[in-house]
Amino acid sequence: MDDKLINKLVNELETELRNDILPFWINNAVDTDNRGFYGLISSDLTIDKTHAKAAVLNARILWTYSKAYSRYKEGKYFFMAERAYNYIVDFFIDKVNSGVYWLLDYKGNVLNSKKQTYAIAFAIYGLSEFFLATGRKESLTKAIELYNALETHTWDCVNKGYYEAHTTDWQPLADMSLSPADMNVSKSMNTHLHIIEAYTNLYRVWKDARLKSTLEEIINITINHIIDPKKHSFNLFFDEKWNPVSEKISFGHDIEGSWLLCEAAEVLGNKELIKRVSEISVAMAQRVYNTGIDTKYGGLFYEQDKNVIETIKDWWPQAEAVVGFSNAYQLTGNDCFMIEAVNTWSFIKAHIIDKVHGEWVWGTSADGLNVTNNEKAGPWKCPYHNSRMCFEILQRFKKRKS
């Protein structure tokens, strides 16, 4: 692969990170009246100052700016990371029952007190990164407390894996669905993938034997129950006993999971697991390459349900495709993967980056011409996928620069 092409990608992504993504949230998202960050900003930068504040958005801001501070050691990034940390600790963490509240009102009062396993995983992810960036021991303590809460209250001792959600005091919940787009089921791929992500980051900074064993077990659960060995893709939703209850395929999650599984195995340092996961990762990336890429307009399709492909191009699968295909290239040396990473970045530049208002649009139609959602920042629209794309490519390839 031509180093010039990779170096161009590295340079452009660092520019995008430093000049667009990171400044956008600093300049637009800080809630100066009620602490923390605004809960909703529309595509034209209209701020809804009374919108609810979501745990996922705040945890992802914490991760993003902790990572930025680790890399660049600039005060403006520390300001954002510390602001997110303080808000999560002061308002989102349940000081009585542990865990993280799902949703607060704009003043920090609890609106939805359910304990969504997914959100708690992201809090662990962000708190671990803040400790990595600052060395502040209380952030690691908080992350470990949340890890213990998940292990105590959400683990299925009979069938293994993690239940999706509970009430505020960890009782069964009738509706466990993560969002209106998700099925109400006992277990999901999405939650388990992000537990792997969170526990991997926690293990970087806390070499605990139980955590290591837990992380290895979740990876094996993913291999044995979540990945379809014939399709080389994730099943998405399951009943309590790990029977799949959906035939949908998520191209974005498949390519994201392909590199997150590799990262987890590498952080664990388990050579046998690294070998096994690497083979699975390449097969998953190849499957996405073969079936998920829009060869006409570029970019990655959203999902497939049986033989029907949803052709919209949301922002986050594009970001994960750049990382996942780059990872597959590093594992195989096959140029086609790196070329597709670069091609996806070209689609992002042309259609996803908002050249008028900054940051990225939610998504576009297949041809990239029509924006599909008016949300620029909100409960699910965060600076995590796109900033992490930049951090990952810089970390993987910047040393190649001449």
From TrEMBL:
It comes from Ruminiclostridium cellulolyticum (strain ATCC 35319 / DSM 5812 / JCM 6584 / H10) (Clostridium cellulolyticum). Belongs to the cellobiose 2-epimerase family. It comes from the Bacteria. GO terms for molecular function: cellobiose epimerase activity. Its EC number is 5.1.3.11. The lineage of its organism: Bacteria, Bacillati, Bacillota, Clostridia, Eubacteriales. HAMAP family: Cellobiose_2_epim. GO terms for biological process: carbohydrate metabolic process. Keywords: Isomerase. Gene3D superfamilies: 1.50.10.10. This is Cellobiose 2-epimerase. It holds the Pfam family GlcNAc_2-epim. It catalyses: D-cellobiose = beta-D-glucosyl-(1->4)-D-mannopyranose. The keyword Magnesium does not apply. Catalyzes the reversible epimerization of cellobiose to 4-O-beta-D-glucopyranosyl-D-mannose (Glc-Man).
